[in-house]
Amino acid sequence: MSRRPESERSDWTDLDLLTRDEAHGRLLAEIAETDVRLAELGADDEAERELLRTRLRALREAAAELTDHSAK
Question: How far apart are CA 24 and CA 14, in angstroms?
Fold first, then answer.
């Protein structure tokens, strides 16, 4: 156990970092779940629908950045 305070410990010592492939897979799963939630909304849920659309755009952009970076 490190004697340094939690705030001074390196993230690398936790050994819980995601690989790009793992992060991409989690993003794809979240995109699928969000798509399902969006499809389940009724016509009177326009505010939530817009929030989910915004979330989907952000998730898809993050997933695309991971794959674009991997191709370089």
Answer: 21
Rounded CA gap, 59 and 49, in Å?
A: 15
The reported pTM is 0.70
Helix axes 20-40, 46-71, angle to 10 degrees: 160
Give yes or no for a contact between 63 and 21, defined as CB atoms under 8 angstroms apart.
no
Q: Express each pLDDT in 3-52 by its tens digit.
A: 655 566 665 555 567 788 999 999 999 999 999 999 999 989 999 999 99
Amino acid at 6: E
